[in-house]
Amino acid sequence: MSSPLAIGIINILNSIQQQSARYGFSLMIVFGNIGCVFNCLILLRKTYRQNPCSLYILTSSCTNLIFINLVIVSRLLAVGYNYDLTIYSTFYCKFRAYIAFATSLLSRTYIVLACADRYCSSSSKARRRAFSNIKVARYLIPSLALFWLLSSIHVYFYWNIVIGTGNKYTCTTATSIYTVFYAFYNALLSGVLIPTLMIIFGVLTLQNIKQINRRIHNITANISRTINAQQQRRGIADNQLTVMLLVQLLFYVISCLPFPIYLLYNAFTINNQQKSTVQNAIESFISYLTIFLLYLNFCSTFYVYTLSGKSFRKEFKHILMMVVVYFGIIKRSEQQQRSFKLTHGPQRIRPINKTVETITVAPVPPSLMNKIH
């Protein structure tokens, strides 16, 4: 391969990477923050806030906000505008890598807990259903946060500013031994353990739902009438949460698995000194694509939930209408009418038929009339 052709390929790959980072990461930051905020507002509403699964997803959304505004913003500056903050401060290099690793695992762990909660809540055994409890969620959330923050501390000590490809400073793993360990550790957690647990709980939840549907089919209509409206709404919300999590599981597998696979490849070829500049450019571009897909997972949860959950969309409409009214775009009376229609559907006005009682008045005597006149 001729040198001018190699330089042309490298320049094209670098240009694609830079331009897509500028627009792609910028859109991720904007829509990711908007989506996470709406996730929090919707999951704090009455329909969801007493559900432990909603609490797990809510905490995951809050963790995603940290990831978006710390990790993706710095990646945008480094790749899109060639201003890498991590190479100017050793502390920031270590701190960013530590927070990125801990929050990414923490966010995914909360989704695993949400999947486990759906399995427990749909189980026919009372002992398993007992784990689907808001008190259990409030205990597990801070406990797992403390666990991942402590177990990820090795990232802070073994990341540093080193001279990388092309004699450029970069913030990465400091030694080749730790690079191999980090690749296997990340691949085991993000590429094997977490998606496997999600798939297992997802399949078991689907089996439980099939069993529930068979039982419901055998229940008579008279019993179903005894269920009040509030219980029906909670049941619909539970089913929608299950569908939302299953769709997110599929999206997670597509977006997150390429990154640990690339880490394993990089660990096995890190000591290869015969790589050409074109090969290094291609590998850098592939690394960028896997990171781009990985970041999509943290920015798209709201949009995945909105597309897959009908009750979630309804709550989003309520929140959106409240925001519109707050900024005075439409009148409050119009908002109340639309909110009523969203909640109760179209209503027919029925005529009120009341029986009008006839009152018989006795005639006035003539003697009394003379006195009046």
Structure description:
- Its main location: membrane.
- GO terms for molecular function: G protein-coupled receptor activity.
- Pfam families: 7tm_1.
- Residues 35-305 form the G-protein coupled receptors family 1 profile domain.
- The chain crosses the membrane at residues 23-44, 56-77, 97-116, 136-159, 179-206, 241-265, 285-307.
- With 373 residues, the protein is mainly alpha-helical.
- It has a two-stranded antiparallel ribbon.
- It folds into two domains: 3-308, Rhodopsin 7-helix transmembrane proteins (Rhopdopsin 7-helix transmembrane proteins), CATH 1.20.1070.10; 314-346, no CATH class.
- Helices cover 76% and strands 3% of the residues.
- It contains 15 helices and two strands.
- Mean pLDDT is 81; it is low at 220-227 and 354-359.
How large is the radius of gyration? Answer: 30 Å
DSSP strand count: 2
Envelope shape:
globular
Going by CATH, what is the homologous superfamily of the largest domain?
A: Rhodopsin 7-helix transmembrane proteins
What's the number of helices?
15
List keywords for this structure.
single chain; 373 residues; mainly alpha; Rhopdopsin 7-helix transmembrane proteins; 2 domains; two-stranded antiparallel ribbon; 15 helices; 2 strands; globular
Secondary structure topology:
Blueprint: H1 3-43, H2 52-80, H3 90-121, H4 126-129, H5 134-151, H6 153-158, E1 159-163, E2 169-173, H7 176-218, H8 221-224, H9 229-256, H10 258-268, H11 277-299, H12 301-308, H13 310-326, H14 332-344, H15 366-372
Antiparallel strand pairs: 1-2
Domain G-protein coupled receptors family 1 profile: 35-305
Keywords: G-protein coupled receptor, Membrane, Receptor, Transducer, Transmembrane, Transmembrane helix
Transmembrane segments: 23-44, 56-77, 97-116, 136-159, 179-206, 241-265, 285-307
